[in-house]
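Appendix B, record 7
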Amino acid sequence: MRTLVSGGAGFVGSHIVEQLLDAGHEVVVLDSLEPTAHDGVPDGLPGGADYRWRDIRDPDSWRSALAGVDAVCHQAARVGLGVDFADVRDYVDHNDAGTAAMLWALHDARFAGRLVLASSMVVYGEGTYRCPRHGEVRPHPRTVDDLEAGQFEPGCPRCGRAVAWRTTTEDTPTDPRNVYAATKLHQEHLCSAFGREHGIAVTALRYHNVYGPRMPRDTPYAGVASLFRSRVEAGHPPLVFEDGGQTRDFVHVDDVARANVLALTAPVAHDGALNIASGHPITVLEVATAIAGGSASALAPVITGRYRLGDVRHVVASPQRARTALDFRAAIEPIAGLATFADAPLRRPRSGDGARPPRGEASSPARR
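Structure tokens (predicted):
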């Protein structure tokens, strides 16, 4: 099988490329080498792939990379919550317009293969909750007044009582609550529309909090595990927002890459969304503690009480549908994986105007 992996030089994408090559597949990589994630061409890329350093927002980049391709794995995107709402144009430009360019090129090429999309748990907004009086409920977005007062837990939207989180399934209504989340859901909608019109299955893998080697470091666009890791490496304690009680599912990048390979190669293509998660809930404070405790110089996390309005309190996945559809089960539990992540190599984004390869330049690093 010949697979085109967009964002294949990135954090998740490079692991997918590596696993596809190890399984004997041909791989074409299309990557813009965006400076929020890369300081030029990353070291340690798996060799044997056909690398194309081109702008994913340009349909011609896609057209030139699609020759002979049997499947497309779309990982390229601007990730993270961003700095502030001023990032809205960049997110829409890279995520929405980049996906539209891909789909236009697939349509033009009469592509009839398999399409796998990297989506995210952020499309759900707040996770699933249960009120002791009103049953399953969807809390309203948290307010600045409540957050300033340290009232981080959402309440029942009908009676205001405390609610308890429950696992979120793929049937949970989507409710994106920040710009990044809105673009990820729009990517799903665009790809689904393409799939319906062309009669092909589109698998949207909703990643929960991914961590592991090759994460970008020292950037507000990185995941919280990377930010904690960078603090510890610099000899500073991790800074935990709110009270640290936010509940998430952290899943290792090796497991996420394996889920993508399964989605690309399963005997029957799955059409629709799948949660990709470890199945082991963990609080943000526990994440910070695991990373600090796994470092050479353990530093106790500091709870700051700070918050970001676009953040949600609890969102924990049900991994059952991915087990049924792909026979996917995460192999690495968060506590063990996060402890080893404390010493994992990270990737540095560009801090200045360093040299970049010319647009269109292709290369194939030596196989490791």
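Remarks on this record: DSSP finds ten helices and 16 strands in the chain. Confidence is low (pLDDT under 50) at residues 352-368.
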